[in-house]
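tool_call: predict_structure(chain=1)
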Amino acid sequence: MSAAAVEHPLNDEPDLLEEADRISDRLPGYRVEIIGGVIIVSPPADGPHAQVLTDLTLAFRALHGERTRLLQAVGVWLPDGPSDFAIPDLSIVDADFCEHEAEYNCYDPAVFRLVLEVTSSNYRNDLRTKVAAYANAKIPVYLIVDRKNERIHLLTEPTANGYATHRVFAPGERLTLPDSVGAEVELAVDALLTAGRR
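tool_result:
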């Protein structure tokens, strides 16, 4: 994870969205987000990261239909600040999500049923910063494929700055997503962690 510091005159409030645009233009392929009023720049994902996302896309295929849609790298507008947004690796959203565009090509968090992150070099961001951000946005389910620590986190029941329920799944276990995502989906932890290894 890297954060970009922006210098401005003391009385001139920085326009973080404009700065995020400038960074995106200078660093094609990097993911630029604003969380908690801080610009976060993430490098392009590696091959194993992409492999986990492909495996999950196939596992979630029942969720891409009339009621819900499965989307990669679509922005969610966050309520924590005037310019905050995140771009989860994978999301399950209501099928009418296009009718709920908020700002900056991001969508209202109310249409998100699940957000998913696969950890990379910026794993602390996924395991800490985004937990609070997604919970404050009231996104019901946050799933983290934690490649560094070789486990999967399933967070549900958002509260202020966190989730009331946090289950950790180790290799050898299976997890079933909550019904609220729109279909019954069971995942094998071993398969996802194996796909994510370098």
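agent: The helical segments are 16-26, 47-59, 123-136, 189-195. Proceeding to next step.
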